[in-house]
């Protein structure tokens, strides 16, 4: 007996009265939803991923899309998703691969936190007219200064600061590798961070020559696959990031499907053409915290202690203690990637079930580091599901120094979060290596869009700070008293060290 | 986490603690200066029939009187004194290390074949979970643990470790994550005759902990290492298994390996895995365990932590790094690495 | 200044590496390090045409990210010599710890005696000209060539009955080749690894490395240049491709 087909995920229709038969939808859909038969556009809705490329290119707004056009018998436990996953796995016996971030309807803590503003007892600050400082330095800070006051009154600073990364805004772009995304996508991001005085991560796909002009804004990544890592790469980066884990798939390695391993990717990664680029789950020279400390030092030694080294971990239950261990190494920043973080390819069961929210992770990391008196030894970067400037303000108030955005920057380039990145057919030219698709993405245009996003959020962040009477980002950092929890349970409030609304 | 080293002289020749201090310091890359410790066997010949109880007191008033109240109830204090310590610039004295030489009454614990040990174990568990400001960190006979928060050399000099002479030494250099300033979190970890040093993290801790707790132990140290001592005490002392079988229970062969064993061996390994499944330790670890009779070192089943062996005559060395062994004994021979899960046993031979 | 001698006794690796870099900048062609005992990261990230002779026990990550130098160790090595190394040669007159040649991208690593677990893990290669080589004189432990994406691992088994008796050989291998002297039991092969014929072509391929090995360690290659080898290669370039279905 056949299992038969499951209902359509999306139903695409064309308003035939509106349609002018320009056929752009056929050209634009890389998944093959449309084809022409005797002058008529035929639709195969089953192939649709809701990427919206056709819709965005239709000159007559003639295309409509409906999600789940066929109802199942409603059931609170056996949702359509649960049923369809089982049918899929009954057919294949395989692990379900998915894209983008956690898709389960967990409550979003950010949305249950509200920010403070000044009234009467202290004035708000107008950031358009008054100075507003968002400049952020990432790296180790001394716990105290030693100075020498000379007899003639001159003061000599005896403490030597270690190299820090200087950001004009606390918003950076997280690591998305060449391979996972296209070269044009990386170029757009690179141009955007250069324009806005901030940084982006290379991911673990090495540094393509085309990105060299932007290397002073690049954080080069060393992940467990060690793809593209050599001494020149390390020397080019403004900073080096060791990737231990990723919020979308804590505890497992990266997996770039062979479909995306073209000649150029094969060369930068040094793996056979068309083979899967497998990053092992752990670094096989790190099986313990002292091994991590050693990898940090080996990178420092290789670059003669001139570069900040970051360590990125997925937000897991023990993130705070792990971060305390990282702070004890020579690392300069720890990146915590929450369980809503994006990914080009991740087993669905991991994406939706492993890890903890970034809000709780950042709060507990900041607190643990303070409890142990080592907060100054390391900067904290929050990432994973940051959607707007309010999320950034709340992350910083919970204890982060800066944030990484990922999916947000992709949306600024067209991405509609359809979650099919692992198929390598992204019609927006982002998560693909197919030359005709990559060509669609114009780095000049898209870099401006990404830069605009960073500018908008920076402006909004200034406004939020001004309203709270804060004119320097240091005063927002870990300022939990400027947050209140709305409908959050006592346990969570305790972890966040935030009072409930009205208190 | 961390760096470890252990040595035994199989003929019971005594070594002072200075060379193991230097060896441990060599591995400072593996630590963070927030915990180090030493265990030595054979150091208290004058009181060899007594349990040498080492306690961290927060003060010498309340906690001390409460501990002594319990000791008086369960036996006789033969001698007590402050453990001599010497101020070090790099070490903050957070506790007062004290020692008792104690003889339990053997008729107070009914239904036990090892009543003295069981009394002693009871006192350790009671003190550590219920007496605020007192922590028993060493409770064996003719042996002792010396540990604190600090770099290995500072901890050694704080206790003047060179003043002690033992035929077995274990040492440990800690890289903490969770409880940095806590002296109890430093290794070696000890219960009765068992002392343990451990590099790594036990990912099965939750399972192991529930298992030992269901057998009457209380985990109170905030460290995964304590379950190792309890597992050895339970399987080795109370169940009477030899140490190589204990190691087999803790780091057993894989099922596919067992399936290919000769029948009798298969039967044994099968039985061990079924019986001691909750004692199986997962995750990366290299461990050295000692008793007054010898030492045993082993790693996890897929060899995620380093362990190096060296020998010189009657001496057997086990360490995270060869260089550390060479610091102790430049003439060391037969340096090699054991296979995953393979116990390296150094037994007294006199 | 052609030859520089450094007494590494009691020295931390950072000043030691600084002295090495300084010597290289001053044109040294040979650097001798005496009394090395466990110092990590020797020649880490070093780009130079220089020979470094290390007398003692080299600590972890010897020659990490290195590109160009030749390191000769008179003694054993701790873990991961040749870690993510790009070019150059490491010759160890002794044994090495776990993860030797970890993620190695180029150059050659010769170990006279044995290596620990996960030797040659994730070695890489791009075409023929960027191909790392690991040659082990004695034996290796489990997970040899795990995740291997390229390069050559050669285990000669000199004086060994069973040079690779542990499990997981070539587990996840998707490029490169593992050559082990003698027979290898089928059950020791890891996921995605298969045996291939060791023929004249393979012998010809390994011959220069065997000869180079013998030159360094002063042994006779003739006894090693025969057909008594097992060749292990990827069963496919995508060992895990069949693991997933789409959402």
Automatic annotation (TrEMBL), chain A:
Xref: Gene3D superfamilies: 3.30.70.20, Aldolase class I (3.20.20.70)
One Gene Ontology MF term: glutamate synthase (NADPH) activity
Keywords: 4Fe-4S, Amino-acid biosynthesis, Flavoprotein, FMN, Glutamate biosynthesis, Iron, Iron-sulfur, Metal-binding, NADP, Oxidoreductase
InterPro entries: 4Fe4S_Fe-S-bd, 4Fe4S_Fe_S_CS, Aldolase_TIM, GltB, GltB_archl_type, Glu_synthdom
Highest taxon, organism lineage: Archaea
Enzyme Commission no: 1.4.1.13
Residues that bind [4Fe-4S] cluster 1: 19, 22, 25, 58
Ranges where the 4Fe-4S ferredoxin-type domain occurs: 10-38, 39-68
Signal peptide (from-to): none
Catalytic activity reported: 2 L-glutamate + NADP(+) = L-glutamine + 2-oxoglutarate + NADPH + H(+)
One GO BP: glutamate biosynthetic process
Protein residues bound to [4Fe-4S] cluster 2: 29, 48, 51, 54
Keyword ATP-binding: no
Reported cofactor(s): FMN
Keyword hit for Oxidoreductase: yes
Protein family per UniProt: Belongs to the glutamate synthase family.
Name listed for the protein in its UniProt record: Archaeal glutamate synthase [NADPH]
From TrEMBL, chain B:
Recorded GO MF terms: transferase activity
Segments forming domain Glutamine amidotransferase type-2: 2-349
Catalytic residues, chain numbering: 2
Keyword Transferase: yes
Cited Pfam families: GATase_6 (PF13522)
Keywords tagged on the record: Glutamine amidotransferase, Transferase
Keyword Transferase attached: yes
Protein name: Glutamine amidotransferase type-2 domain-containing protein
Organism: Methanococcoides methylutens
Higher taxonomy: Archaea, Methanobacteriati, Methanobacteriota, Stenosarchaea group, Methanomicrobia
UniProtKB/TrEMBL annotation, chain C:
Organism from which the protein derives: Methanococcoides methylutens
An example Gene Ontology molecular-function term: oxidoreductase activity
Entries under SUPFAM superfamilies matching the protein: Alpha subunit of glutamate synthase, C-terminal domain
Protein name as annotated: Glutamate synthase alpha subunit C-terminal domain-containing protein
Pfam families (alphabetical): GXGXG
Domain Glutamate synthase alpha subunit C-terminal, residue spans: 22-184
Stretch forming the signal peptide: none
């Amino acid at each position: 007996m056949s299992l038969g087909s499951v209902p359509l995920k999306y139903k695409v229709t064309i308003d035939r009265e509106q349609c002018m038969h320009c056929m752009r939808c056929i050209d634009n859909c890389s998944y093959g939803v449309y084809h022409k038969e005797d002058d008529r556009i035929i639709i195969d809705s089953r192939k649709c991923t809701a990427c919206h490329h056709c819709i965005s290119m239709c000159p007559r707004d003639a295309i409509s899309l409906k999600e789940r056009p066929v109802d199942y018998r409603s059931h609170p436990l056996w949702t359509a998703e649960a049923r369809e996953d089982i049918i899929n796995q009954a057919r294949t016996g395989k692990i379900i691969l998915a894209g983008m971030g956690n898709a389960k309807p967990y409550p979003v803590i950010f949305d249950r936190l509200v920010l403070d503003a000044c009234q009467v007892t202290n004035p708000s600050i107008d950031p358009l007219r008054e100075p507003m400082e968002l400049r952020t330095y990432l790296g180790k800070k001394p716990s105290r200064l030693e100075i020498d006051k000379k007899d003639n009154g001159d003061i000599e600073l005896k403490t030597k600061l270690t190299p820090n990364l200087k950001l004009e805004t606390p918003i950076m772009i997280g690591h998305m590798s060449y391979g996972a995304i296209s070269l044009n996508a990386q170029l757009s991001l690179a141009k955007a961070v250069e324009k806005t005085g901030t940084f982006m991560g290379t991911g673990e796909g090495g540094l393509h020559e085309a990105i060299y002009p932007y290397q002073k804004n690049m954080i080069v990544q060393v992940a467990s696959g060690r793809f593209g890592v050599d001494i020149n790469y390390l020397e080019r980066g403004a900073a080096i990031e060791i990737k231990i884990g990723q919020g979308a798939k804590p505890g497992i390695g990266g997996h770039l499907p062979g479909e995306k391993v073209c000649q150029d990717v094969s060369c930068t990664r040094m793996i056979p053409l068309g083979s899967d680029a497998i990053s092992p789950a752990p670094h096989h020279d790190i099986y313990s915290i002292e091994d991590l400390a050693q990898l940090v030092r080996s990178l420092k030694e290789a670059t003669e202690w001139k570069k900040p080294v970051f360590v990125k971990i997925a937000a897991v239950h023990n993130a705070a203690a792990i971060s305390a261990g990282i702070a004890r190494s020579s690392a300069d920043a720890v990146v915590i990637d929450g369980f809503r973080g994006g990914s080009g390819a991740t087993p669905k069961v991991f994406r939706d079930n492993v890890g903890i929210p970034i809000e709780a992770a950042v709060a507990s990391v900041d607190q643990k580091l303070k409890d142990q008196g080592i907060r100054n030894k390391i900067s904290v970067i929050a990432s994973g599901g940051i959607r707007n400037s309010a999320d950034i303000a709340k992350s910083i108030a919970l204890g982060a120094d800066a944030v990484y955005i990922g999916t947000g920057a992709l949306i600024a380039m067209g991405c509609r979060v359809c979650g099919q990145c692992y198929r390598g057919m992204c019609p927006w030219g982002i998560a693909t290596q197919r030359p005709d698709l990559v060509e669609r993405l114009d780095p000049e245009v898209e870099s401006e869009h990404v830069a605009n996003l960073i500018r908008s959020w920076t402006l909004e962040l200034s406004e939020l700070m001004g309203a709270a009477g804060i004119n320097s980002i240091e005063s927002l950092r870990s300022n939990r008293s400027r947050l209140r929890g709305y409908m959050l349970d006592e346990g969570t409030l305790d972890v966040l060290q935030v009072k409930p609304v009205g208190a | 986490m961390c760096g470890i080293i252990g040595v035994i002289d199989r003929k019971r020749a005594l070594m002072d603690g200075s060379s193991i201090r230097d060896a441990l310091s060599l591995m400072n890359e593996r630590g963070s200066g927030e915990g180090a410790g030493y265990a030595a066997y054979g150091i208290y010949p004058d009181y060899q029939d007594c349990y040498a109880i080492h306690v961290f007191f927060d003060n010498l008033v309340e906690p001390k009187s409460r501990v002594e109240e319990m000791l008086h109830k369960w036996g006789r204090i033969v001698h007590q004194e402050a453990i001599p310590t010497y101020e070090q610039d790099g070490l903050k004295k957070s506790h007062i290390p004290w020692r008792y030489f104690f003889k339990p009454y053997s008729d107070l614990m009914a239904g036990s074949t090892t009543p003295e040990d069981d009394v002693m174990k009871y006192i350790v568990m009671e003190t550590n979970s219920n007496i605020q400001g007192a922590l028993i960190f060493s409770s064996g006979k003719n042996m002792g643990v010396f540990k604190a928060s600090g770099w290995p050399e500072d901890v050694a000099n704080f206790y003047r470790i060179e003043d002690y002479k033992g035929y077995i030494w274990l040492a440990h250099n800690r890289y903490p994550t969770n409880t940095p300033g806590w002296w109890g979190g430093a290794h070696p970890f000890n219960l009765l005759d068992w002392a343990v040093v451990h590099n790594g993290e036990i990912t099965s801790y939750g399972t192991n902990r529930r298992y030992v707790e269901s057998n009457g132990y209380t985990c109170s140290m905030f460290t995964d290492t304590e379950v190792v001592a309890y597992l050895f005490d339970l399987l080795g002392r109370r169940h009477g298994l030899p140490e190589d079988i204990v190691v087999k229970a803790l780091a057993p062969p894989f099922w596919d390996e067992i399936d290919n064993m000769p029948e009798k061996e298969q039967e044994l390994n099968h039985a061990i895995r079924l019986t001691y499944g909750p004692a199986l330790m997962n995750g990366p670890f290299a461990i050295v365990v000692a008793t007054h009779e010898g030492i045993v070192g082993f790693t996890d089943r897929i060899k995620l932590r380093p362990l190096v062996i060296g020998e010189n005559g009657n001496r057997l060395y086990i360490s995270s790094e060869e260089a550390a062994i060479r610091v102790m004994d430049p003439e060391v021979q037969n340096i090699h690495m054991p296979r995953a899960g393979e116990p390296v046993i150094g037994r007294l031979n006199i | 200044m052609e030859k520089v001698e450094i007494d590494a006794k009691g020295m931390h690796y950072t000043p030691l590496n600084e002295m090495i870099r300084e010597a290289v900048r001053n044109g040294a062609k040979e650097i001798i390090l005496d009394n090395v005992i466990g110092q990590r990261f020797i020649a880490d990230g070093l780009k130079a045409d220089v020979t470094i002779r290390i007398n003692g026990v080299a600590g972890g990550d010897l020659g990490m990210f290195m590109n160009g130098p030749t390191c000769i160790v008179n003694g054993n090595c701790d873990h991961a010599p040749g870690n993510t190394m790009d070019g150059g040669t490491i010759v160890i007159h002794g044994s090495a710890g776990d993860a030797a040649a970890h993620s190695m991208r180029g150059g050659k690593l010769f170990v006279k005696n044995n290596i620990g677990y996960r030797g040659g893990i994730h070695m890489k290669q791009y075409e023929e000209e960027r191909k790392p080589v690991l040659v082990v004189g004695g034996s290796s432990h489990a997970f040899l060539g795990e995740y291997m994406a390229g390069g050559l691992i050669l285990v000669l088994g000199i004086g060994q009955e069973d040079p690779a008796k542990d499990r997981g050989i070539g587990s996840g291998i998707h490029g490169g080749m593992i050559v082990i002297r003698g027979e290898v039991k089928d059950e020791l092969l890891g996921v995605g690894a298969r045996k291939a014929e060791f023929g004249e072509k393979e012998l010809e391929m390994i011959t220069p490395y065997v000869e180079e090995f013998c030159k360094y360690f002063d042994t006779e290659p003739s006894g090693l240049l025969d057909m008594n080898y097992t060749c292990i290669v990827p069963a496919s370039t995508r060992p895990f491709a069949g693991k997933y279905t789409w959402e």
